[in-house]
Design a protein that fits this description.
The structure is a homotetramer of 197-residue chains.
Chain A (H helix, E strand, L loop, with lengths): L1 H24 L6 H8 L3 H7 L3 H14 L4 H6 L5 H18 L1 H13 L1 H27 L8 H21 L2 H5 L4 H11 L5
Helix pairs in contact in A: 1-2, 1-4, 1-7, 2-3, 4-7, 6-11, 7-8, 7-9, 8-9
The first copy, chain A, binds a DNA duplex (21 and 21 nucleotides) through α1 and α3.
DNA sequence: TATGAATGAGGGTTCATTCAT
DNA sequence: GATGAATGAACCCTCATTCAT
């Protein structure tokens, strides 16, 4: 039991080191040796916990994805009106998202670059959008979203979040410094619009 | 003159081939040989037109950036109200953006991954945002944007566009198929909001 | 055409170098770099002519096997009596076998050690023995081989040749020095026996 | 005493496991871990009984060689005639040889491949042949071997046995199935020849 | 004595780049 | 200019060996 705990910690340390190294230099420009040095272990040790360099990346990707699997969020907020839903949902995720910045920076470029990973993400996205579409459709009928097309709305709002994550990763000053103001800003923009009285 | 023209065409062919190969497989997983094959030339020939593989990427990046340098757009629309500006501006760029999808897919992942390129893009962004901030500030005073923070607004709107480009690159079905509807949708969302009326 | 000729020569040079290095140090203890140095080329060049280190070994194996594919030998001697057949056949092969000593030494240990190669050789042997069995059966009926079991005879005689090749490879002094006397000795032993007259 | 006995058993178990693994996959393709798994112990434990992987191989080799050191065989049969000697000697060894098939298959390829082991075997062979040559010389004078060259005879007969062992290891069907018939066949072939009345 | 996690040297292979033709 | 064979540095990964427990 102890050994297992210890082993889990090692694995997590390697992943943390890898996310730092990958985020800084990019997956391909990083060497297994650099990750090992960052983790304070020998090269070969990594292979006791991961099958390959790519497997380390996939583990990081999995870690990232696991966070999105929280259907509880939706259920809990099912009865709230749309604006409250968006407000609460965004606030909850927001710190989470930022705390994952490094892992995201480590993983996302390679996901974009690798056809297989790209396709895997596309498939995940398709599932997530299907769920969101159903939810929005339900809400759409019962009001609160105006006459907006819920299908496009889901793409646009998630694209906004994705884009802000990228600006954050790129180091854009304002997004970095005022990250915490964004949920409120977004909710206001989306629901009130710019031409509100 | 003829030689120069011919040379320019070769260079462009290589870039086109590179953008196809890089977009499909990612920059690092692509080999110079694959680009050469795609361009229908020998490996070594690429080095008559580019100093290195990285230089090819930089050329693609430059091509992408050059398109954004159109201050004319702003000048021409300087007197329009905010909504018209956004409407016209988005419509104009929209097809352009999509036509650059391949180059974007080829270049962007590596820009995210390479510290030097990331920093270069950050610097470019900073300049662009400075210009946009000034413009929005001017407009903000004269009305049309409500009480919204123009600095955050610039980041959020550009982030949305960036995010939509990525969904497009990832192959998200709705964004792919309904790309042309997005400018109108965005303008409506941003200016009217969901709870309009 | 010139290029092809040149290419074939390079390939042959690499194989020759590999057979020297493998024969001396064994396949696994030899490095690709050592083969390259022996051939006077760079490490990577080997991979322009062979897919892998193992592929080099397989090419050597193929070279060895090709020499046994001489059905002409049999046809030509079909009408000779058994002793003449053995006499002529052994003499013909004998120098050939010795000239292949190095390739044999390079390849055979690994064939024995690798399950896949071992099985491949077994299958080749099975075919060769089937042919030999048929031939011996034919001769057996028409006399000249006494009452000996032709099936066992084929295994024993070929085993003897194989064993002598191994003693040669091992550097056994007498076999090395008196190699050329062996065909006559073998024919005499096999046909006359020790207790003759 | 008990501890020592226990220790010897462990050592023997490891050797048995190693011979199975080496025979199946070859010495170099086998890992210390595979041997340990086969023996049902931990990797490190092997190093309590052997200095190195190579040391395990040498121990197997020694085990193989020890069996040949039976001068008693010769002494006991000193007064028998040549044919009886060969007959009894072969019969005695034959089952022994086959029971060692696995160890032989494990060890022999690497002996062929490793220059040091090859030379060691050559030296052992030289000693064995010196003894055999003396014996045959003695017999040769006193008759029973015809006029055959006893020096070549020793090499040829031992080569035949070696070759048959290899065919057995390779899995040649007839040798495998009719192994027990070979001593009689060999004696008959060697002493009577094929053209016997 | 036994374990097995950790080590790190070593090797096969890839591929950007060069250069003789 | 164009070619593509040749180069060799760099890197992922394996595995024999060690040693703290």
């Amino acid at each position: 039991m102890r050994g297992e705990e210890q082993s889990d910690r090692r694995r997590a340390e390697i992943l943390a080191a890898a996310s730092r190294v990958f985020a800084e230099r990019g997956y391909h420009r990083s060497t297994v040796r650099q990750v090992a040095r960052e983790a304070g272990i020998a090269d070969g040790t990594i292979y006791l916990y991961f099958r390959s360099k790519q497997d380390v990346l996939l583990a990081l990707l999995g870690e990232l994805g696991r966070l999105n699997d929280r259907p509880a969020d939706f259920a809990e907020l099912a009865t709230a009106d749309a604006r409250t839903f968006a407000d609460v949902y965004l606030r909850r995720r927001w710190r989470d998202i930022r705390s994952r910045r490094e892992v995201f920076a480590a993983v996302f470029p390679e996901v974009l670059a690798d056809p297989a990973l790209r396709e895997a993400l596309r498939a995940r996205l398709a599932l997530a959008y299907a769920a969101a579409d159903a939810e929005l459709e339900r809400r759409g009928r019962s009001g609160g979203l105006g006459s907006s097309d819920p299908v496009l709305l889901a793409r646009v709002t998630s694209a906004t979040v994705l884009g802000l994550m990228l600006l954050d990763v790129l180091g854009e000053g304002v997004v970095r410094e005022r990250w915490d103001e964004l949920p409120v800003f977004l909710t206001s923009l989306w629901f009130d619009g710019l031409q509100r009285r």
